[in-house]
Design goal:
This protein is mostly helical. Helices cover 52% and strands 1% of the residues. Among the domains are: 21-124, Cytochrome c-like domain (Cytochrome Bc1 Complex, Chain D, domain 2); 148-220, no CATH class; 414-468, no CATH class. It is built from 22 helices and 2 strands. Strands 1-2 form a two-stranded antiparallel ribbon. Helix 1 runs antiparallel to helix 8 (148-180). The model is unreliable at 1-24, 127-133 and 137-141 (pLDDT under 50).
Length: 468
């Protein structure tokens, strides 16, 4: 009995000291980040500048400048109570975002709310909205390690707590042994580490850490936000979709009529590059990859008969001649290297290595692009449903592709991200024949009973719509 009471008191005292220390801390950006991530990020955009399920938080202080800080705190703690009281700012927000109800946080202290405000303001000065994730040299999203030290501190505190409790238990056992006249048990550090309690705690910690890591990796499998692999051809969306203004569906014509957006074949590229034979950045190198894959001879402007039967050496002779002729016709380049052998050799080595690999020895044949966007096999996604019926712009999911020199995965493609989009995206009824069947919503809008209809209203959150 004495042992159990002492163990409980030690643990309770330590926990009280630890958590009181945290709760009495001054407002900080780090504390605000934790609170925002755990409580606010499910509805408010992390870049603070774009709307999500809830409004963008950038500029919130200016919008509440006419009201007291206490009123702003009350809004965070219980927004619906302020709406019911007729508060003008609360009513303004409710009329804009209803029927979506903001969660209530009655337990938040003033310091915790101020910490969230500090974090929001710190994020406003970061990268502008729509610039995408932080991509490192490896082509993957760089994880924020700025607050990793907190986890190490917590681990140290946990180890210290276990050690203190173990020593306390050991001393209690000694006292009990002395009182009963028994031999006191050995209390070496080795015995403590090999005790049943220590081994149980170690197994529990391994299960928790292993489970957390496994679940996170499973959730991210195949859909890494920021994924930016090297492609066989240095194709620039910034040049084609941005500078040249080519419509996305000219190349990805499957997006408007099928489940998949489709990767354009080399024939689509040839619609332009039969005439445009030299690029502004890479010269002949990247465009020649298209010619070599499909069998177009730029020297004669004809397709090569039985091209797939040619050996790699025969193919090399054709395109090396093309590169050499183009190179020598450029006086500025020829002046740097009169024979042009080095440039021709380097370009052909790059072309050959890009179009061949361990499983594809022939230069001729389809270009093997690396897929970037992927959803699990149990998820049904139809591009035509979103592009043709929903009238969504490609940029809504893929970001500002026209500004990307090298394409990367802009959105997380997670279930939560899709659900939030379905909750907030308004269905475009006007001039859309597909939605004529939803007569009750048309009548509700005409009668003023609804201001908008979202994808959620027409079944966008039903499980079987995406999982079949």
């Amino acid at each position: 009995m004495l042992y159990n009471c002492l163990k409980y008191c030690l643990f309770l005292a330590f926990s009280c000291i630890f958590f009181v220390g945290i709760s009495s801390a001054e407002p900080s950006v780090e504390a605000g980040k934790t609170l925002f991530t755990n409580q606010c990020a499910s509805c408010h955009n992390k870049n603070m500048k774009d709307d999500l399920t809830g409004p963008a938080l950038a500029g919130f202080e200016e919008r509440w400048a006419s009201y007291s800080r206490e009123e702003l705190y009350n809004w965070v703690r219980n927004s619906q109570m302020m709406v019911a009281s007729g508060h003008p700012r609360a009513l303004e927000l409710w009329n804009r975002w209803k029927p979506t109800v903001m969660n209530s946080f009655p337990a938040f202290t003033d310091e915790e709310i101020e910490s969230i405000f500090l974090y929001v303001n710190s994020k406003i000065n970061e990268a502008p909205a729509g610039t995408g994730p932080n991509i490192g040299p490896s082509g993957k999203v760089e994880r924020d390690t700025s607050n990793d030290f907190i986890y190490w501190i917590l681990l140290g505190v946990l180890i210290l707590t276990v050690t203190v409790l173990a020593r306390a238990i050991s001393n209690l056992r000694k006292i009990a042994a002395v009182e009963t006249g028994e031999e006191a048990p050995k209390t070496s550090f080795r015995n403590v580490l090999t005790s049943r309690a220590a081994i149980t705690f170690l197994i529990f910690a391994i299960i928790v850490v292993g489970g957390y890591t496994t679940v996170n990796n499973a959730i991210d499998f195949g859909r890494q936000q920021g994924y930016q692999p090297d492609q066989p051809i240095a194709f620039s969306h910034q040049v084609h979709a941005g500078l040249q203004g080519i419509n996305c569906q000219y190349c990805h014509d499957g997006a408007r009529r099928s489940k998949h957006a489709s990767i354009p074949g080399a024939n689509t590229c040839m619609n332009c590059h039969k005439a445009i034979k030299k690029g502004s950045q890479f010269g002949t190198q990247e465009i020649t990859k298209i010619y070599a894959s499909i069998g177009f001879n730029p020297n004669t402007d004809t397709y090569i008969p039985d091209y797939e039967k040619l050996s790699n050496d025969e193919i090399q002779a054709i395109y090396v001649q093309w590169i050499a002729n183009t190179y020598m016709n450029d006086r500025k380049l020829a002046a740097l290297d009169r024979r042009g052998e080095r440039t021709v050799r380097e370009q052909w080595e790059e072309i050959s290595s890009s179009l061949t690999n361990d499983l594809k020895e022939k230069i001729s044949g389809p270009i093997e692009w690396t897929r970037i966007h992927m959803v699990p096999d149990h998820v049904y996604f139809n591009h035509a449903q979103h592009v043709t019926i929903g009238k969504l712009a490609c940029q809504q999911c893929h970001g500002k592709v026209e500004e990307m020199d090298v394409l990367y995965q802009y959105s997380p493609l997670s279930m939560g991200w899709c659900i939030n989009c379905h909750r907030e995206t308004e269905v475009q009824f006007d001039g859309n024949e597909y939605y004529k069947t939803y007569e009750k919503y048309h009548e509700a809008i005409k009668a003023g009973q609804k201001t908008k209809v979202t994808v959620e209203d027409i079944g966008g959150l039903e499980c079987q719509k995406c999982h079949y």
